[in-house]
Amino acid sequence: MTSLSVSLVRGALTSPLKRAGRPDATVPPGRLTRPAAPVAPGPLAAYGRICGFAESGPLPLTYPHVLAFPLTMRLMTGRAFPLPVLGLVHTWIEITPHRAVQSAEPLELAVSAQGLTPHRRGTEVTMATEARVDGELVWESRSGYLSRHATTDTAGTPPRTASVPDAAGDLPAVAEWRLPGDLGRRYGAVSGDRNPIHLHPLTARLFGFPRAIAHGMWTVARCLAEIGDAAEIRSARAEFRAPVLLPATVTYAADTTGNAFALRGSEERVHLVGAVTRAS
């Protein structure tokens, strides 16, 4: 958390100096790594509670992403990273667990930036994260983060994830969740992600949002916690279609197999669509 706090301060200072959308922009080469370290039980339990995961069993499917977030922030706030970190919006994620990871296993983490892609609303960067146990790759993910700025691209950039079901409005409702106005601050305290767009209406308005928005990683984690059976999941993918303005009441929907899921808001607005594949 100490290194993450330093990165957040550095991001606040360096973001005004960076201009997104430069045609010659490139991502920094190489990767940042963290040596193998055990998972702290207290923060893990707090994360499980706020996201709805079981108290025992393998690590939540999304937790290595949280553990690696300080590395991600350090890379994104470095001088060589071309986008301002303040206001970045998480747009999609793909997760591939190669096996179930137990909380007692020390994880070695690595993060790298894979490239920049033009987006109809700005520029998107793809970040990759890997987790290893004794050199064995046990978990990996790819994520897209959008830096919003003026652009002449009006064609509508297609999602860069593997395809997910697009009939989110047709999935049957399973549960209704009422999300409090302080959810962003509470999840930020657990995950370390204190992006201003999640913390308070005033700071969210600085980046074009009328109110604070829920973390994309909380929404996908809450959906995956509802699916359960993490040991059977071989891949998970989600696209964040529209921000969840806090406070909110949302509906979790899923097909009869539980493999396709969505999060909908008022007037059937789709916030998230996703899918998992399971062991055959």
The level of helicity is 10-25%
Order of helix and strand elements from N to C terminus: HEHHHEEEEEHHHEEEE
How many beta-strand runs? 10
Which residues form runs of ≥5 with pLDDT under 50? Answer: 158-163
Q: What gyration radius follows from the Cα positions, in whole Å?
A: 18 Å
How is the largest sheet built, in terms of strand order?
1-3-4-5-2-7-10-9-8-6
> What is the global morphology?
globular
Number of helices: 7
Strand content: 25-35%
Largest sheet: 10 strands, antiparallel
Average of the residue pLDDT scores: 86
Helix-strand makeup class? alpha+beta
Index terms:
7 helices; 280 residues; 10-stranded antiparallel β-sheet
Q: Can you put this structure into words, describing what you see?
A:
This protein has seven helices and ten strands. With 280 residues, the protein is of the alpha+beta class. The protein has a ten-stranded antiparallel beta sheet with strand order 1-3-4-5-2-7-10-9-8-6. A hairpin with a 5-residue loop joins strand 9 and strand 10 (270-278). Helix 1 packs parallel to helix 4 and helix 2 packs antiparallel against helix 5. It is globular. The relative contact order is 0.16. Residues 158-163 have low confidence and may be disordered.
